Amino acid sequence: MSILIKGGRVLDPDRFVGIADVLIDHGKIAALGQNLSAPLEARTIHASGKLVMPGFVDLHVHFREPGFEYKETIQSGSAAAVAGGFTTVCCMPNTNPVNDNQAVTEFMLERSRLAGLANVLPIGAITKGSEGKELAEIGDLRRSGCVAISDDGKPVMNSLVMRRAMEYALAFDLTVVDHCEDVHLAEGGCMNEGLISTELGLPGIPSAAEDVMVARNLSLSELTGARLHLAHISTAGSVRMVREAKRRGIHVTAEACPHHFMLTEELVRGYNTHAKMNPPLRTWADVQAIKEGLRDGTIDVIATDHAPHATQEKQQDFTEAPFGIVGLETALPLTLGLVEEGVLSLEQAVQKLTSAPATAFGLNKGTLAVGADADVVIVDQQEQWEVDPTKFRSKSRNTPFAGWKVKGRVNVTIVGGRVVFETDVAER
Amino acid sequence: MTSPTNKLTERKDEKIIMDAGDISRAMMRIAHEIVERNKGVKDLTLVGIRTGGVHLAHRLVKRIQSIEGVSVPIGELDITLYRDDLALRKDQPILRKTSVPFDMTNKVVVLVDDVLFTGRTIRAAMDSLMDLGRPEEIQLAVLVDRGHRQLPIKANYIGKNLPTSRDEQAQVLLEENGEDDRVVILKA
Amino acid sequence: MSLKRKDLLSLASLSTDEIMLILETTDSFKEVTGREIKKVPALRGKTVVNLFFEPSTRTRTSFELAAKRLSADVINFSPSASSVVKGETLLDTARNIEAMQADIIVLRHSSAGAAETLAHGVKSSVINAGDGWHEHPTQALLDLYTIRQRGMNFRGLRVAIVGDVSHSRVARSNIYALVKLGAEVRLVGPPTMMPWGVEKLGAKVCYDMDEGLRDVNVIMMLRLQLERQGRALFPTIREYSRLYGLTADRVRIADTGVIVMHPGPINRGVEIAPEVADSLSSVILDQVANGVAVRMGILYLMSGANS
Question: Which residue of C has its CA nearest to A272?
Fold first, then answer.
């Protein structure tokens, strides 16, 4: 089965930008050029006026399976991913049981195969049970298919354990991902510490809780030479330190989430549990720093930290409600918002959703090079729509963006040469 | 609270029923009737219902003093908390002070109000008095009785009987509120 | 002027006119509580539910007495002690209570914002009886009433609030109200007990107690949560007491007519010396007595028919 995408504006970051046809055959990109002719039986998709890009790569999602299937499954999460244009997603290991062994990794890969939608790539735990004490069987995890290691959500507080993890990961060329948070400084906190937490009487999480761990991780990366990826950085301090570390040649990449460049802590007013995430929404100054970091390349990657939670969980009072929001189905228009705003060029924005994340984890993804896996997304950059959580493919509806009027919509998503998502528009 | 004068005099449909002289004579007569009926002022007390009744009660105390040479105890009653329509109102009325600085036990209490209409205010006032003590007897003095009673209540002393229709409004305007003394009827 | 709101959630959201209306309304109920028969029929037929997720005998009792003196039916509901199934949200509990036709729900909860969350979810009026570290509006209103009862004027009044401001809903409510009413508010305590940026709410912070108490007209002591010892807020009760305990000597630093307040229950000999708690300047028991009248006033003002 072949697909010919005709007349679209092809945007393959660092490689090609312009009007061209893309031919897909046997699950691979077969050709890219002008006036390609379709082989017999090929499906032709007319894409003039649309953007044709490599499928997006999300380094940070929580698909909750095994253990919390009421929030999300690999099936529903994958459906949300492809609806949002993501063809490859990396799943954090904080499932139940924790993905700290081959069995869980294989289970997740099998579920993903059954779902048959996105490429779901597991991230293994750094320590057993993500308890921060003993290293997990990282070599085994790598062999069975994990693409990185992280104790996301339960930061490795013991610096010696983190040092050993970084050293050990070098042997398998694995990126070490850390959710930077000093759990003692953050203890009990549920929003950014500042004037608003003071006014609302909510326990705060200071920026310093993130900054001190970013500093530690950068030092350890420098010490060990390990490839470090900083998950969802949210503070001006983190951006400053990463910028400086990169200048000094430390092997670090960093990601930011749309909510951290679109929203501030103001949203917490009224005890809005959809504004409760970790790291918390920060101040206007932090948002500006994140944008500057994205612009100047300090922040390489845009990731969603897609964190589904059931409605009744988010309906609890603010301190009890769990952290996190879903993000896969809103990330594209929010990222394009940065382009509208003039923070990023369109090519830069696409790069942060495709080639940059692929590079950070050493994945063979995020490109339309001939011979690459045919993971492609076709986007109508101009289409306006309103975010309606009841229409999400995700099992969960926990988003602060409900009702937002946004621009830019996925029309077709192709994974491995197969159309896995398309809107009515693409049919016509 | 009564509205400011200018607002009222502007209204074409205001009809003056009693002027200052009428009110003064009626108060004097009521003072005499109270003293006569109670055979003097021993055990006599007056309690005005806020706000109009309080002013009239003070006037009656002065009149009675001029007749008997004795100043009878006087109290002020805010009946808001005893109203029967509290649960129906969206905004609760402002509370004013209740002050009955004497023991009512075995006393005659003359309740004083400006206008007697449905009788609901007087019911509330009597309940309120009962919570404050146990008077020997309660009597009722009003400047105007306009009829349309909804409860079996009758005044002992009446300044003027004033036949009205239900949709009319009777108002007693007094100097104490910065008005010229008068009783008027306003068409709704 | 009337209180045109469904709920009483915070003093941050009340205007000075609304605060003064509550205090003036309280005068009427102060008179009622001074009577032989301390009961009026104003809330006959209304149901008040005390929904207390945190144990608090005194606030609950005060609300209960206030509601009963207004002739309301009162139900006390303490989900921690009753059979609330884990997983039932605050809203579920409240909707169940609403189905019992509660007109007013008085909520005490350990989470900041619980009252606001509840108010959005139910038609009943909600009165915040303390939510986490956020606010305790009725306590602050009774504090204000007690100050006003002493003939003090809020404008220019110097008030010291001493103790763990960071974790105190009483302090927050008082700061919001006193600053609005034109008082000078000084917060006294170690930096570990001051929330981030609290000066921006209009208060002054003093780490030194003697300096903080100079010439103040009102001293509000906060209860020290003894269990916080060793949690890095303060080293020992002994040291805290020496640095921030209110002694008779320290009272003398303040204005001669100073009044000493405490929301209770007091830790005698920790934040307040027994001879100060029992002295003539102490109005701690007046606060308790005024609490009932203030809550009667609030219940009365909130009891209008819901649209």
Answer: C117
What topology does CATH give the domain C151-282? Rossmann fold (3.40.50)
Q: Reduced to 3 states, what is the DSSP secondary structure of residue C130?
A: strand
Residues in chain A whose beta carbon is closer than 8 A to a beta carbon of chain C? Answer: 193-195, 197-204, 206, 270-271, 312, 315-320
Contacts of A367 (CB under 8 A, 6+ apart): A12, A15, A54, A354, A355, A358
Contacts of C63 (CB under 8 A, 6+ apart): C48, C50, C106, C127, C129, C138, C295, C299
Dump pLDDT digits (tens) for A378-416.
999 999 999 999 999 999 999 999 999 999 999 999 999
Question: Domain B19-164: which topology?
Answer: Rossmann fold (3.40.50)
A178 is catalytic: no
Ramachandran area for residue B68 (φ above 0: left; ψ -120 to 50: alpha; else beta): alpha
- What does the pLDDT look like over C3-61, one tens digit per residue? 888 999 999 999 999 999 999 999 999 999 998 889 999 999 999 999 999 888 899 99
Residue-wise pLDDT tens digits, A253-288: 999 999 999 999 999 999 999 999 999 999 999 999
ipTM above 0.85, yes or no: yes
Contact C28 B96 (CB under 8 A): yes
Residue from A58, A178, A300, A305 carrying the catalytic annotation: A305
Chain C (103-132) residues lying within 8 Å, Cβ to Cβ, of chain A: 109-114, 116-117, 131-132
Phi/psi for C273 (5° steps) reads -75, 145
Report the chain A residue with the minimal C-alpha distance to residue C117.
Answer: A317
For chain A, domains (ranges, CATH) are 2-52+373-384+391-427 (2.30.40.10), 54-361 (3.20.20.140)
Query: What pLDDT does residue A204 have?
Result: 97
Q: A388 to chain C, minimum CA–CA distance in Å?
A: 21
